[in-house]
Design a protein that fits this description.
Elements: H1 4-7, H2 15-29, H3 48-54, H4 85-104, E1 106-108, E2 111-113
Antiparallel strand pairs: 1-2
């Protein structure tokens, strides 16, 4: 049996990027739409940590559930489904993070500097 956790790096958000991303998210979607998790959901599996070894990053979960419609399963579950209304919300949220980050850096002569 393969131990996947031994092969994939853990996801660790860059503290400074996380702080600014949360600020930008909350500004666009509102504080009530943002929940900080104390731990990843059960059966969480992600290789994003391998990217974070090379480039600092921030990982967020986008809630795609709608309990009123019976859409509650997590990714990698056989009954996984998506409330498609959440997709537009996710686009707005991630666009806020991207615009916030681009606003925070200085672009000069084809290179991005901090």
């Amino acid at each position: 049996m393969m131990n996947a956790n031994a092969m994939a790096s853990g996801v660790t958000n860059d503290a400074a990027l996380y702080a600014t991303a949360v600020k930008d998210l909350v500004q666009v979607v509102g504080a009530a739409a943002f929940t900080e998790l104390a731990a990843p959901p059960a059966r969480f599996s992600e290789d994003f940590g391998d990217y974070q070894k090379l480039v600092p990053g921030v990982f967020f979960f986008l809630g795609l559930s709608n309990t009123a419609r019976g859409i509650t399963a997590m990714p990698h579950d056989a009954t996984f489904n998506v409330d498609e209304a959440s997709i537009a919300f996710g686009i707005r949220a991630m666009a806020a993070v991207v615009v916030g980050r681009l606003s925070a850096v200085e672009i000069g002569r084809g290179a991005v500097t901090r």
